[in-house]
Write a structure and sequence with these properties.
The complex is a heterodimer of chains A (about 300) and B (about 325). Chain A has about 300 residues and is mostly helical. In chain A, about 75% of the residues lie in helices and about 5% in strands. Chain B has a domain at about 30-240. Classes of the chains: A mainly alpha (about 300), B mainly alpha (about 325).
Chain lengths: ~300, ~325
């Protein structure tokens, strides 16, 4: 057993899980509170990466890039909500699918027009690009940073949702929207904030991953599906559910990709194992989703009082 | 979304079908094989769109994973061909049965849910299939699979020339239209449409709506798998890309621009989509932007798609005439 590899894979899984959480927490709130299905949530992930990359190229500071990027994506999210999404809350889900699918095409092409078709590499400052050596283990600093940043944002979000007035409204909105409206809360503003906040968190995930994978067009379109699975498994509208589901799915996905073939080798000839392992590991996350749905149709942690 | 759009005169559609039947001869006379290819591709997508319309339009089940069945149909040609089994009946039987099984299992799970859950789950299962094929190195993974020879059928059903393949596609299209028409107007279809408008009422009438929906879902998947089988033969090259989730999105788009829950809406919508795609991509590389804006505008401002617009025109004409 290669302990170094195991630790690296665990970190990768944790990292994927936290990125998924950043994407899914916004999605789950938008689903839960506004009953709005946002396919274009992955676009904010991409836009964040491009904003951040551009600022980093100009200023040379990754931190400034993230700050400006966050504000930028928040603004884009707010604009999209205000111009388009707001008009659709009362329409049916098919309209949501169509409009947000259209938004994906629009955002992908706009990025293509503004930044070109090739990806954008985001250089890391030397301080983040190193490795941390603990005993015999070698840990890449930047991956540690992603994990710490992800946990920090999760903590801030929990505080926001459980301890503040805004969070109280958000939780109330996820459980019973019409009651919140009836109590005279400015529901339009609440929706705008939730949507833009969700966009900003998705953007942050994009910014954090871009130095590793490069920013590229369509980067959000694949990961968004796994984020959907996270939302379903966690329970629509539940930030806590999104957190646990994201970590579970991130770890399962990463670990199965690296260790399933070893496991299969124990029970079948290695040439079969080599074919079967990647196929099965591609399925695992979805099998988990199907299993959760079979036993808990509302997900692992459905918000209290939700119909 | 509640009322079904008024129907356009059957004559206009008979004319459209007649034109589709004759066009290959005109293309051949003009010596334009490219247009025959374009039309073949459009009609294959029409079959897929018609099958999607069955669940999405008539049944109100918004599936964002229908491209899975195009993929299944295509790989049911590709994988046997890889092992030198070219028998067309084998390909067809495989496509129908594999798609039926996949639809039965995933449908049984996803139809237990509603609304956003259903949309996301159908999407997730298709993505699962996409990743499975992406990981199967034997069948080319993301490099795709070349199909060297078309499915073999008896001489009178051969699809070897592009002309005969076109008529194969056209024939399946006619069957799909006829079948959909009969299905929707039979008791089965009335239960499906009824359950979309008022599920409790249908249940109170004693119908097991879940079972009806699941049956409808499986039928739709099987029709779509034939489109996939035709696509494999038409393209001669398949890759997991054909079941990427954006493909499913495009299929919904085709159904919507034509007009949902109408017999010919998907046909008109798909042909419009393919022509628009061809035309726009010829003038600018940024044609997706125009598509995106069109989609957003369609939802915000236009209802009923081309079909709705045409039938409004038709009725205006009647009032004046």
């Amino acid at each position: 057993m290669d302990w170094n590899l195991l630790v690296t894979q665990l970190m990768n899984g944790l990292q994927l899980g936290l990125l998924l959480f950043l994407l899914a927490s916004g999605l789950t709130l938008i689903f839960g509170i506004m009953d709005f299905i946002n396919l274009s949530h992955g676009s904010f992930y991409m836009i964040g990466a491009y904003f951040c990359g551009t600022v980093v190229a100009k200023t040379g500071s990754f931190l400034v890039g993230v700050m400006v990027g966050l504000i930028g994506v928040f603004a884009v999210g707010a604009l999209v909500e205000w111009l388009i999404v707001r008009k659709l809350y009362r329409e049916d889900h098919l309209d949501h699918v169509l409009v947000t699918f259209g938004l994906i095409l629009i955002f992908d092409t706009l990025i293509h027009m503004l930044w070109g078709a090739s990806g954008m590499a985001i250089p890391l400052p030397d301080a983040l690009n190193g490795q941390l050596i603990v005993g015999s283990l070698v840990l890449p600093t930047y991956r540690l940073l992603i994990i710490v940043a992800g946990l920090l944002v999760a903590a801030i979000l929990f505080f926001l949702v459980t301890k503040t007035r805004l969070g109280m409204l958000i939780r109330a909105g996820a459980s019973n929207r019409s009651m919140v409206e009836a109590l005279g809360i400015n529901i339009n503003r609440l929706f705008l904030i939730v949507f833009a906040l969700g966009a900003a968190m998705a953007g942050l995930a994009g910014m954090l991953i871009a130095p590793i994978t490069e920013a590229h067009i369509g980067m959000g379109n694949d990961i968004i599906i796994i984020a959907f699975v996270v939302v379903i498994v966690g329970g629509i509208g539940s930030v806590k559910g999104a957190f646990y589901a994201a970590l579970i799915i991130g770890l399962i996905d990463t670990m199965s990709r690296s260790y399933l073939d070893l496991l299969f080798n124990l029970v079948m000839p290695s040439n079969y194992a080599e074919t079967a392992a990647p196929a099965v590991s591609a399925m695992l996350v979805y099998i988990l989703m199907a299993a959760v749905l079979a036993f808990r149709p509302r997900g692992l942690f459905p918000p209290a009082g939700m119909k | 979304m509640i009322s079904l759009p008024a129907t356009i005169s059957a004559r206009s559609y008979a004319l459209l079908l007649l034109v589709l039947a004759l066009l290959p001869f005109i293309f051949e006379w003009l010596d334009q094989p490219f247009y025959l290819d374009l039309l073949s591709r459009a009609l294959i997508l029409c079959i897929a769109a018609i099958s999607l319309n069955l669940i999405l339009g008539f049944g109100g089940m918004v599936s964002l994973g229908h491209a899975a069945y195009i993929g299944i149909g295509a790989y049911c040609v590709g994988i046997p061909s890889y092992y030198d089994y070219y028998n067309g009946w084998l390909h067809l039987t495989l496509a129908l049965s594999v798609s039926a099984i996949f639809a039965l299992v995933t449908g049984a799970i996803s139809l237990r849910t509603r609304g956003v859950y259903f949309i996301m789950i159908t999407m997730a299962f298709t993505q699962m299939l996409y990743f499975i094929f992406l990981s199967l190195e034997v069948y080319g993974a993301d490099d795709g699979l070349v199909i060297y020879s078309r499915s073999e059928f008896p001489a009178w059903l051969s699809m070897d020339s592009s002309m005969s393949l076109y008529y194969w596609i056209f024939g399946v299209l006619l069957l799909a239209l006829f079948f959909t028409h009969r299905l929707v107007h039979a008791r089965f279809g009335r239960v499906i449409v009824g359950a979309r408008f008022n599920e409790q009422r249908m249940q109170a009438l004693g119908f097991n709506t879940y079972r009806y929906r699941l049956t409808c879902y499986v039928i739709s998947a099987m029709i779509c798998s034939i489109a996939g089988m035709l696509f494999g033969n038409f393209a001669g090259f398949i890759s997991p890309d054909i079941m990427g989730w954006t493909r499913s999105g495009e299929l919904i788009f085709m159904v919507i621009i034509g007009g949902v829950a109408t017999l010919f809406g998907p046909l008109v919508g798909t042909i419009t989509f393919v022509l628009l795609e061809e035309f726009l991509s010829a003038i600018t590389v940024y044609w997706h932007l125009i598509f995106g804006i069109l989609l957003v505008a369609l939802v915000l401002f236009g209802k009923g798609g081309i079909h709705g617009w045409l039938s409004r025109m038709d009725h205006k004409g009647e009032e004046h005439g």
